[in-house]
Specification:
With 251 residues, the protein is of the alpha/beta class. It has a single domain (4-236), classed as Rossmann fold (3-Layer(aba) Sandwich). It has helices spanning 13-23, 36-48, 63-71, 101-122, 149-168, 188-192, 197-201, 212-222, and strands at residues 4-7, 28-33, 52-57, 82-85, 132-136, 175-181, 233-236. Strands 3-2-1-4-5-6-7 form a seven-stranded parallel beta sheet, with helices on both faces. 41% of the residues are buried. The structure holds NADPH dihydro-nicotinamide-adenine-dinucleotide phosphate (NDP) and 2-hydroxyethylsulfonic acid. 2-hydroxyethylsulfonic acid binds at residues 138-140, 148, 182-183, 188, 244.
């Protein structure tokens, strides 16, 4: 059965891997992000894998852009089965007393308000009885780690929003799943350190972190269970991670 899947933040990391995983079943994939060149590349790859693709280039922080993008979805993509709220980021890793309000705004506007803006437009397009929202949370949404302050707060908000969505959408029989990963080697830390790739890479040495493909696998699993089964929350780390901040590194 072919389904329509909208994945926010599909130009890199988890979202890109999720788009490819779902494309293999000849699904229709709506991919979003701010980088049009990346969207073009992912769209091409989805087609190579046998899926149909539609790109929407917008910033989840800008409500008018979100509204315009969802309105522009053509009829054949408009009946959405699965919304994957994945777009998100960390900006900075500083003690609260040294934090930048610009970083704080960026994280709250993207991870919390952006997720809400997209959900507000897409929930009306989900089918009662078969619709599914999958929110990408984080272990940072379960437990705060040193210097994680505002990023952790934004992911705790995703945790609460996911629970709230599940209650409110219960009468419509729309599934709400949160997937809460630990550290994974994507572009996440390069973005967090404002482009410092070397500093970002140093976080993933001496242990085997999660990969984007691991999260794609779990998202696909959650979306392919019998209709009466809903995974509420799936907390996942690599074998080297014991909670949101304790690691078993080789050195
Ligand atoms: P990446 O940086 O690799 O990918 C992030 C994606 O989000 C990109 O496609 C980016 O697209 C998109 N995005 C960011 N800001 C915006 C915006 N304002 N508007 C639209 N799209 C945006 O990171 P990950 O794949 O690792 O992260 C994906 C999600 O997973 C995030 O919510 C993150 O918090 C969460 N997470 C990550 C973990 C990790 O260790 N990597 C662990 C747990 C959770 P573009 O730049 O083109 O706009
Ligand atoms: C991203 C993982 O550990 O950097 O949510 O917070 S972590």
């Amino acid at each position: 059965m072919s389904r329509t899947v909208l994945v926010t933040g599909a130009t890199a990391g988890f979202g890109e891997a999720i788009a490819y995983k779902f494309a293999k079943d000849q699904n229709k994939i709506i991919i979003t992000g701010r980088r049009q060149d990346r969207l073009n590349k992912v769209e091409e790859e989805i087609k190579n894998l046998g899926g149909e693709a539609l790109s929407l280039c917008f910033d989840v922080r800008k409500q008018n852009e979100v509204i315009g993008a969802v309105k522009s979805i053509p009829e054949e993509f408009k009946s959405i089965d699965i919304l994957v709220n994945n777009a998100g980021l960390a900006s900075g890793l500083d003690p609260i007393q040294d934090g930048s309000t610009e970083d704080w705004d960026r994280m709250i506007d993207t991870n919390v308000k952006g997720l809400l803006y997209v959900s507000n437009e897409v929930i009306p397009l989900l089918e009662d009885g078969t619709g599914h929202i999958i929110n990408i949370g984080s272990t940072a949404g379960k437990e705060v780690y040193p210097k994680g302050n505002v990023y952790c707060a934004s992911k705790h908000a995703v945790d609460a929003i996911s629970k709230g969505m599940r209650l409110d959408l219960l009468p419509r029989r729309i599934k709400v799943t949160q997937i809460s990963p630990g550290a994974a080697n994507t572009e996440f830390s390069t973005v967090r350190f404002h482009g410092d790739r070397e500093k970002a890479d140093s976080l993933y040495t001496d242990y085997e972190p999660l990969l984007a493909e691991d999260i794609a696998e779990l998202t696909y699993y959650a979306a392919n269970l019998p209709v009466h089964v809903c995974i509420n929350d799936l907390v996942v780390t690599s074998l080297a991670q014991g909670n949101s901040y304790v690691f078993n590194k080789k050195k």
